[in-house]
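yo, DUF5686 family protein is done. seq:
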Amino acid sequence: MKKIIVVSLFFVFAFANSIIAQTKVSGVVLDKSNQPIPFANVVFKGSNTGIVSNEDGRFYLESPNNYTALLVSSAGFSDKEVSLEKAVNYEFKIVLSEPEALNEVVIFTGKTSKKNNPALDILRKIWERKRKNGLYIFNQYQMKKYEKVEFDMNTIDSAFMKSKLFKGMEFIFNHVDTSDVTGKTYLPIFISESLYDVYGDNKLKKTKENMQANKTSGFNGNQQVLAFVKDLYSDYNIYDNHLKFFDKSFTSPLSRTGIDVYNYVLKDSAYIDKKWCYNIVFYPRRKNELTFKGDFWVNDTTFAIKKINMGVTKSANINWVKDIYIEQEFEVTNDSVFLLTRDYMMSDFALNKKEKSKGVYGKRTTLFKDHKFNIQKPESFYKQEVNYIDNEVYAKTDEFWEENRFENLNKDEKGIYKMLDTLQNVKRFKQLYSVASILGSGYVEFNKFDFGPIFSTFGYNEVEGLRLRLGGRTYFGRNDPWRLQGYTAYGFDDNKFKYGISGKWMVDKKNRLIISGGNRRDIEQIGASLTTTNDVLGRSFASSALFTTGSNGKLTNINLTNVAIEMEPMKNFNVLVGLSYRTLESASSVFSLDYYTTLPTAQNPSGVVKSDVKQSEANIQFEYTPKRKTIGYGVERTDVDSPYSRFFVNFSYGLKGVLDSDFAYEKVQLFYKQPIIIGPLGRSNVIIETGKTFGTIPLGLMSVIPGNQTYFTIENTFSNLNFYEFITDQYTTFQWNHDFGGRLFSRIPLMRKLNWREYVGVRGVYGTISDENRAINASTQPYVAPENVYWEYNVGIGNIFKVFRIDFSWRGSYLNTPEANKFAIKGSFGFYF
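structure:
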């Protein structure tokens, strides 16, 4: 959801000047019968700057240099030179003719041969040498890096400029670059520049980037935008088999599996920087797969890439992105060293892929220089530091940037900073920004206080009936060292008020030492997840869903108080020590948590029964999340949406007698989640949870296998289980879910255009209950443990209308359980790239 709101921000707030290029050309390549020629090669004459047309023969090409002609070629057609009378040339119709003699070109039509193709012989040489080129041939390396990220609205017409949306902000159009040919305009909404020192050690397989300076304008204060930008442009290596963009794995044209995915054509050869290079054009063998079209130049002796240009095919199964264009240039430092010096990536975000649809260009330009090699650093140098530094320390003067940026900004780019900074003070802009911010964060911003989250305002369950919740938090800025937040709720059936309040204070920024505490009195569906925390404001969807598939009256009154201290001694490794006290009591007349304090005997057949639980507990937990990226350094940070592993361990100790606590026990819980990207086959998530409680405990403290009685898919729950269907004091669960990303449906002609995506999964659980815990059960809930392994499996279809997914789930065991759900249908909404 966060990503779609961020993209929406780009569509709503698009403002200012022109694109950098001096020469711009777009058009379509046709044959004599006016049929489009896909994957035609279009190059500025006298340069190596070019692009390959898409499946519809359309292309767009730009350059900061001035050119007067294009060279257009395609396998099976004669080359053609096209004059450019203006710097800006749009909607060219370029017609290619068939050659008069067959020896004019090497002809490849349709799918190219996998045998006797000289392009493939060269490709195999690239595979052999890819670890013997560039930075890989040195033990250590270091260099300076300059990165510039821009976002620009494109395809803006005069009607849009006159829209009431821009009332009070008309001044932004004073500097718009509008084409006299098409009326297209380019309006920036964001620009950011950064300087880094980069270090790497190929022996240790370690890298490190130290930021030296940063300058940002536009949405520089919005966490969601910053997180989106950081995740959007993740690093990649063109030599890798698969390249990750927008959380998807694209097959690289240099991949070892490329022969099965791409067509390759040896198109040309020429000297580039005094090095003889071959030019190879590539384009996909099939539609709807995550592939590119383009060409590259490769040296004839080192088989190192000198230059590569490529764009994502229009039919690729990816949403909201009309085009992705990548260009990399490598510098020859000596006979065998080819170093990446320029990396340019442009993404065209749009609501649809129609040619004239409005969209947003996201552009990243990365430059490298001052390479040094074999300067060894100790291994401790590469240790990641905890993110606690405010980006304000990287703020530098305009004079610093004039002296240190690798390439000068043009006059239009220089104007972006001033114009966008002025825009922040315009009342109309603030109003629009507030609306987008509410949708993105879920909070309504006031002066130093946020109201929300608004998406939790309404809920329903059988005990409270309709539930109304109001809450808020302190908010002075994204890097607040402390935060207070709370809520109050009211149930219209039980006529009771509930509340929760918590506070956090970061007392040491370097190690992120945080003290926290809070109290909550509410009604909750306990057992909605196995691996639990003592977050006093946490609430499961199970007790708040407006609609459920069955009774959700097995709810508990909970009064929870906790205090904790946590720290991050090393990057992405957290340690927390906490104390908590809770009371638990059934909130429903049809459900009890009763237990025996004295077991029945012949003299006392009824025993002694107690209905509430009072429990003090101490716990220590460890969490390790390698490769997790975050934004900000305050007491609360925003995660960047890139997949990362999570390993969580929690040890809990029941403190009998402390504050009249009822039970003594020890509990250990482990949680492990591992995302696995399997190239073009998609991505899997493997989740393992296991836990055991040592000691005698009642139902309220048992490990309940989480069911799902909502209509929605909820991670780490079992879709075919009801609440409290299985209860354990020791358990192990396994889940495997796989997203094929449309790989299978793309092979079915009638389904190919739908761009649906396939999901499969299986999950199971094994658990037991000790005789001692069975003996003290006096509740109305029978104890059943999955001693014979409960499992279920599911298949799903996602990307329906780009936002909806439906899952079909089947129970694989315990089929004869009374009222068993043998089949379930669940849905979910989300943002799908």
